[in-house]
């Protein structure tokens, strides 16, 4: 009998689970084949399709000591070729956080000729951080692509919005709803009864020999970020007792945009708003 996942109180973090050298031009054809992305798309369509493909590769989960974590499974991942990683991920049991996910997507873009970097933001040294990928289109726009929540930033016209224009408040934007389902791997020891069922967790579909349970996991921006039980922003408001928007959180840059000095200068000019955590 299939059973619904019962989430332990600390397990909300799987919704946000958050440096590989770029591969050479000769791997671009193999990259598209592995990710099942057509080679005749416009840049906007290709950037979107690549993010969707990477999102589907990323199993989510929680295991004690992260024994099935991406970094533990491939401890040399920062030196590995990204194409070989995807080929290994295709047949492996693991779960991945937003950091490595953003770097994998960055290197996919770079392999296909798009300038790309990662952007890390949130409350430093807490669970409330997130990392996404910035990628430049031929017309100069820098697109916000998030493989962890399977979303991208759009303007009012439905086109990809420049991330810096949104961060600075120059233009309004919204995050696209783009739903996919992936594997969720959870150690049975962290499960207990809960009065609140997150919408992003589906039925149990299996169990690994190690005692790790497998569930369907719904990846979409609204459910992962705003789920009333365990959404990223829901838990932030509860645990930090502060009212803050996702836009405000996104302006709280944690680290530099490595390898992108021009973008670093642009983001450095954006005033990061102080956030009062006192609850007053």
Automatic annotation (TrEMBL):
<protein>
    <recommendedName>
        <fullName>Transglutaminase superfamily protein</fullName>
    </recommendedName>
</protein>
<feature type="signal peptide">
    <location>
        <begin position="1"/>
        <end position="24"/>
    </location>
</feature>
<keyword id="KW-0732">Signal</keyword>
């Amino acid at each position: 009998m299939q059973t619904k996942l019962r989430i332990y109180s600390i397990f909300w973090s799987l919704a946000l689970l958050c440096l590989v050298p770029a591969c050479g031009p000769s791997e671009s054809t193999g990259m598209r084949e592995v990710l099942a992305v057509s080679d005749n798309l416009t840049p906007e369509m290709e950037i979107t399709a690549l993010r969707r493909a990477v999102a589907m590769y990323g199993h989510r989960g929680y295991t004690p000591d992260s024994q099935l974590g991406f970094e533990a499974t491939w401890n040399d991942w920062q030196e590995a070729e990204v194409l070989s990683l995807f080929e290994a991920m295709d047949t492996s049991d693991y779960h991945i956080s937003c950091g490595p996910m953003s770097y994998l997507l960055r290197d996919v873009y770079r392999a296909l000729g798009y300038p790309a970097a990662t952007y890390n933001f949130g409350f430093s040294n807490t669970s409330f951080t997130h990392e996404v990928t910035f990628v430049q289109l031929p017309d100069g726009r820098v697109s916000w692509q998030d493989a962890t929540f399977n979303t991208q930033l759009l303007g009012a016209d439905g086109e990809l919005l420049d991330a810096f224009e949104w961060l600075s408040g120059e233009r309004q934007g919204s995050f696209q709803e783009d739903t996919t389902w992936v594997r969720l791997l959870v150690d049975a020891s962290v499960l207990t009864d809960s009065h609140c069922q997150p919408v992003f967790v589906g039925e149990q579909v299996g169990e690994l020999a190690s005692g790790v349970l497998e569930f369907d996991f719904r990846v979409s921006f609204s459910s992962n970020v705003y789920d009333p039980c365990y959404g990223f922003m829901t838990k932030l408001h509860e645990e930090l007792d502060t009212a803050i928007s996702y836009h405000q959180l996104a302006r709280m840059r944690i680290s530099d945009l490595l390898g992108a000095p021009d973008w670093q200068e642009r983001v450095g000019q954006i005033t990061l708003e102080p956030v009062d955590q006192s609850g007053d």
